[in-house]
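Protein Entry — a single chain follows
Fields — amino acid sequence, structure tokens
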Amino acid sequence: MLEEFKKFALRGNVVDLAIGVIIGAAFGAIVNSLVADVLMPIIGAVTGGLDFSNYFVRLSPRVTADSLAEAKKQGAVLAWGSFITLVINFIIIAFVLFLVIKLMNRALRSEAAKPPAPTKQEELLTEIRDLLKSERK
């Protein structure tokens, strides 16, 4: 039973799925911080104080607040700034995962590209071939 579980757990699909979940969870927090704490302030500085996270459209006349958190308490709002931040998060996560998978594929290709060492029989046949070629010249 332990052998069967080992075969199941080490099968490619299960391991790939586990790696995907772990990497996604690990990079999620990092990317959220990168976007919120690094990229958006830089974008805000370049654009003269633009802060996407606080942009919204009032969908109810009862909404009079200037901050998104307060506006949500007052009524319906369309928080398009938060959406833009999440889209940027997604693009960064997808790009980082793309780079990781590309590096993994390159490493696997380089291992697969190495031809196996010739057998003793192949070495002997190669030597015979080379001797026959040199005698013809």
Observations:
- Residues 101 and 107 are 10 Å apart (CA to CA).
- The first strand starts at residue 57 and ends at 58.
